[in-house]
From TrEMBL, chains A, B:
Pfam families: Aminotran_4. GO terms for molecular function: lyase activity. Gene3D superfamilies: 3.30.470.10, D-amino Acid Aminotransferase, subunit A, domain 2. Belongs to the class-IV pyridoxal-phosphate-dependent aminotransferase family. One of its GO terms (biological process) is carboxylic acid biosynthetic process. This is 4-amino-4-deoxychorismate lyase. InterPro entries: Aminotrans_IV, Aminotransferase-like, BCAT-like_C, BCAT-like_N, Class-IV_PLP-Dep_Aminotrnsfr. The keyword Lipoprotein does not apply.
């Protein structure tokens, strides 16, 4: 089967029986070049839905359960019906069986609120070849910091802002990347209006000071990154100290190393921050890449 | 032709000749029940695009030019190619000629960044019957104030937040309406984290103190409402004072009347704010409705 590969999914209630064998009846393969969605889809009209992107490396879907758990968490924050994770898992398995078993691919899972005034959510899975990120894993990225407009306490105060949910409303994230390119950089690190590190538009931030690795506390204002968690487990297994905490912009600037980590691009070193060169930990970045490319569950 | 009515549009460059007669070749009518969009559409993957919703009353499309001007402004803020407004205008004319010439309808215009890695934006028009808003125009709405998480100066400081553009990333707007329903209300008025009135999730706010009508200054942090502007013109023609200015939550609470105004629901009185009854100006609300239902350009 060639890429891209698209599967429309009729979402089942979370408590539908976990047999697995009949889930395939709820899947419909469609040609990626063919229209599959109606214009009254709320995903397209309102960015109203949630998603996950996971990596498939040489036929192994990475971190399926953490991604599905986050999909369920995002759905909960957005008052969407709880997804049937066994059904989603079966959809991923079917896709992995159909797509090339070599190389790096990306699978996107989308759960939309459905057609306007419609009875139920719509859902689909879309698998495509990953871009070739080998060069950027080697050479790193130049990043800028951008004010996300929120202060550090906003998530607790205003849950309707849906911070912590991976929604389809990513226009600001995309605009922040365009702003980086406009300034001659490659990527962005969002900071709060009161000066604390949040996350990248499509990545988590990890910093190293000495032998301590830190990432912003998942207070609800940022997404809890699956790749970041996987790397922290790896680091802990190898005897390193890891810490979730508030990180000021100043601490970011004075870090011994900074990485942006995400499911498909994996770990990339920040080699320049707001135009100032940053120290780079090349051996560790290489270890990270090697680990992240190995089969992970 | 029955509703809904959908027209796919191949967007032309802004400077394509303004002949009008051949624009129809760039329009394709599609059945609303049929899929028309690919899953790799960035509108659906990222909420990455802009839109307008305008009203059609008894066969007359209301305020077409102001809506198209705002579409162009939104596209500019989002770094989308400038839309060809003559083409969009022709699309609206074609739709109006095809849909019922009686009653109230809504036309949505969508300009999406297009298919991922694709060459150009995608665009469509979708016409549907408007909900029956007569009851709510009579009885008004109960509203709550919700913190939008931004301070008053954010738009100048952080243009990448796309405030002032009508993007498809409306998940937060929809969540704010759900929060209102959860609290037993009908609608929301967003306020800044430093206590100033912004706008509703799908409407503008107008308040009256004595004979002065005010709306929050369109500083870039809010959408400049087409219906609000139309009403201000109407009020000025009738000798009333209108003012664009910063409005504190306290001023909202002590107003002699508050309206939420939007293109399709039109002007609805706020009869209760955060659980407290508000004074209602029923005669003026009726005049507003009468004016807003009359043909406007």
């Amino acid at each position: 089967m060639s890429l891209p590969y698209t599967l429309l999914i009729t979402p089942l209630p979370a408590d539908a029986p976990d047999d697995g064998s009949w889930f395939t009846e709820t899947f419909t393969e469609v040609e990626a070049s063919e229209p599959a969605l109606r214009v009254s889809e709320l995903s397209t009209q309102r960015g109203d839905g949630v998603f996950e992107t996971l990596s498939v490396v040489n036929g192994h879907a990475q971190e399926v359960q953490p991604h599905l758990a986050r999909l369920a968490r995002s759905a909960e924050i957005c008052d969407l019906p709880a997804p049937n994770l066994a059904q989603w898992s079966a959809a991923i398995s079917q896709a992995v069986a159909r797509i090339p078993s070599q190389g790096e691919l990306a699978i996107k899972l989308v759960l939309s609120r459905g057609v306007e005034h419609g009875p139920s959510p719509t859902a689909w899975l879309h698998a495509s070849a990953a871009s070739d990120f080998s060069p950027v894993r080697q050479s790193g990225v130049r990043a800028i910091t951008l004010d996300r407009g929120y202060d550090r306490g906003v998530a607790e105060r205003a849950p309707w802002l849906l911070l912590g949910a991976k929604t389809l409303s990513y226009a600001v994230n995309m605009a922040a990347l365009r702003e980086a390119h406009r300034r001659g950089a490659d990527d962005t690190i969002f900071v709060t209006s009161d000066g604390y590190v949040m996350e990248g538009p499509t990545s988590s931030v990890i910093i190293r000071h000495g032998d301590v690795f830190s990432t912003p506390a998942p207070s609800g204002a940022i997404l809890h990154g699956t790749t970041q968690r996987s790397l922290f487990n790896y680091l802990e297994r190898h005897g390193h100290a890891v810490s979730y905490r508030d990180i000021s912009i100043e601490e970011l600037r004075t870090a011994d190393a900074v990485w942006l980590v995400s499911s498909v691009r994996l770990a990339v070193a920040v080699i320049e921050l707001d135009g100032v060169q940053m120290p780079v930990d090349a051996p560790l970045t290489e270890l990270f890449t090697e680990y992240l490319l190995s089969p992970r569950d």
